[in-house]
Amino acid sequence: MSRAPAAIGEADLHTHSVVSDGTESPAELMRQAAAAGLRAVALTDHDSTSGWAEAAAAVPETGVALIPGMELSTREGFTSVHLLGYLVDPLDEPLLAETARIRESRLTRAEEIVRRIARDYDLSWSDVLDQTVEGATIGRPHIADALVARGHAATRSAAFAGILHPRAGYAQPHYAPDPLTGVRLIRAAGGVPVLAHPGTRGAEQVVPPARLAKLVDAGLFGLEVDHPENRADAKPRLRELAARFGLEITGSSDYHGAGKPNRLGECRTAADVVARLVAEARGSAPVLPPE
Ligand code: AMP
Ligand code: FE
Ligand code: FE
Ligand code: ZN
Asked: Which atom of ligand 1 lies at the shortest distance from residue 73's CA?
């Protein structure tokens, strides 16, 4: 007789710590999850699994189950596409090599963005380093925080709407593989891939069915339909695509601590979807609190 796996229940499947562009340590994030009444949370820092150990160590104390994951950067032409990769093997060589390449490119890209901004504003690279912890995946949010610290913007969001907006002419892209490569990398690392916030650009910009079909063939598990930044007009379209392709629907907050208004647990994934996700994973296991 096979033993039923411990039920994790519903979960917030997308959060960030200081390991990328969140503002809380992984342990603090776990404490915040407990305070928000969550029983399970996924830590999904951009292009990194470096926060897993600290978050896992906080599981017994907080009683919150951890589903380790990452948010892998990919790119389709000029459009950035994020893939959530749950329960990957954190030591998988191809995935490690690709995320190292992305992080390296993020670093040189951020330095270039700062060089450009510094022509017009008082801002230095050390201002950005002041906003990051050692080894963090660098992104525009850290530059935004440096702009805030220097008094050039009121908040991170204001910096994104102003100096960091593509139209302002300072921002530029970083290296990222295409989404199909991303889905394959995550599956090859034993993980479970979900297309992150696929409706932030509205119904017209939702991934075309032919392109989605390729991702599904490569092993895409689901669509993050319930996300604070998915536009309302995109959600019916996404639900229709999920039904058509047999994809699961996930829900998550994309919490970044004080870096974004998203509240922990404001969107969640149903218990049965979480159970199926965990059952498909081969790369690593959820960390459960003691019974
Ligand atoms: P990057 O990874 O450097 O391209 O920056 C993208 C990240 O910036 C996303 O993962 C978000 O967390 C963050 N971001 C994007 N827009 C905003 C915004 N308006 N306010 C705060 N954070 C944002
Ligand atoms: Fe982010
Ligand atoms: Fe994202
Ligand atoms: Zn995210």
From this structure: 2
Q: Which of 255, 253, 248, 252 is nearest to 275 (CA)?
A: 248
pLDDT in tens, 86-101: 999 999 999 999 999 9
If you take atom 2 of ligand 1, which residue's CA is the nearest one? Answer: 139
Residue environment code for 157-188, b if the CB has 16+ CB neighbours within 10 A, otherwise e: eebbeebbeeeeebbeebebbebbbbbbbbbb
In degrees and rounded to multiples of 5, residue 289 shows phi and psi of: -65, 155
Probe residue for ligand 1, chosen from 14, 21, 137 as the CB with the greatest number of ligand atoms within 8 Å: 21
Q: Residue 160 Cα, ligand 2 centroid: separation in angstroms? A: 12
pLDDT band (50, 70, 90) for residue 67: very high
* Residue whose tokens read 């901004």: 117
DSSP string, 6-55: PP--SBB--B--TTTT-SS-HHHHHHHHHHTT-SEEEEEEET--TTHHHH
What's the predicted TM-score (pTM) here? 0.97
Distance of CA 32 to the CA centre of its chain: 18
pLDDT of residue 4: 55
- pLDDT tens-digit map of 208-217: 999 999 999 9
End-to-end CA distance of the chain: 21
Distance 255 CA to ligand 2 centre (A): 8
Q: What structural domains and CATH numbers belong to the chain?
A: 106-168 (1.10.150.650)
Distance from the alpha carbon of residue 73 to the mean position of ligand 3, in angstroms? 8
256 CA to middle of ligand 2, Å? 7
Tell me if 135 sits within 8 A of 126, measured CB to CB: no
Sequence letter at residue 46: H
Query: Which ligand number lies closest to the CA of residue 20?
Result: 2
